Amino acid sequence: MSLSRPPLSDYSRRTPELLLPAVLGGIVLLYFAIPFVAFLARTGMSNIVAGLSTPEAQVAIRNSLLTAPVSTAIATVFGVPLAYVLARTSFVGKRLVEALVILPLIVPPVVGGAMLLTAVGRFTPIGAAAAAVGISLTDSLLGVVLAQTFVAAPFVIITARAGFGAIDERLEQASRSLGYGPLSTFWNVSLPLARGAIVAGIVLTFARAIGEFGATMMVAYNPRTMPTRLWVDFIAGGIDAIVPMGLALLGITLVVLAAVQRLGRVPTVVDE
């Protein structure tokens, strides 16, 4: 049975109803677009290649490309199992766990960095113990990873949980009835079915990690990453000085956007 298209008169009747939402939505879209256009318009005033070829910029780019994948991997390895548990089980304290997952998203990054310092700073028991064996948890690449993971990990947890929650549990039950254990079912059934949401979450986590500034500035202002280098350049030379590094970060963002679009829509969180 074929579905006929609504008559054109239906669209014309709906047009007045959608006019106000369209205008309001257009205003916010314009608000989003103008800063991008204005920023890109300044690229002609800067030597992009020269700006990204300085030793300081090269070090910042290298540090970001080293730490962001590590942070993303840590968030994925530990976050995806947590997402599965949250999607499939109910337990005492679950709401508290959910709140802890969301907390890094709503806490200002600078405050998140301060919280990390109170936990792993050099004068804390954890920081002092690490320093005693020659490991610095602050002002180091490890500190950058800690800051990035703290603020970025919720993205993969939330999206993976949504992906697991969208799976029909009967498929997992069928796997169990065929003799597969919980781990085998998770690996062979649940994980492949939620793959799109998980990969989208990984991509978003990477984007958040590589662009993290506030928490990184608090925990590891040195060595420089791309965002902290951008801030130093802005203080020293104003807006034009940050165009090369800003354009590089914008390029990474556009690649992430294309990847997420390629993977499809990120599902919404599903509560059982």
TrEMBL record:
Compartments, record wording: Cell membrane
Keywords: Cell membrane, Membrane, Molybdenum, Transmembrane, Transmembrane helix, Transport
SUPFAM superfamilies: MetI-like (SSF161098)
InterPro entries reported for this sequence: MetI-like, MetI-like_sf, NifC_ABC_porter
Regions that span the bilayer: 18-41, 61-87, 99-121, 141-164, 185-210, 230-260
Residue span, ABC transmembrane type-1 domain: 61-260
This protein's record includes keyword Transmembrane helix: yes
Membrane topology: Multi-pass membrane protein
Keyword Transmembrane helix among UniProt keywords: yes
Pfam families for this protein: BPD_transp_1 (PF00528)
GO cellular component: plasma membrane
Gene3D superfamilies in alphabetical order: MetI-like (1.10.3720.10)
MF terms (GO), sorted A to Z: transmembrane transporter activity
Family as reported in the entry's similarity comment: Belongs to the binding-protein-dependent transport system permease family.
The protein's name in its UniProt record: Molybdate/tungstate transport system permease protein
Species this protein is from: Natronorubrum thiooxidans
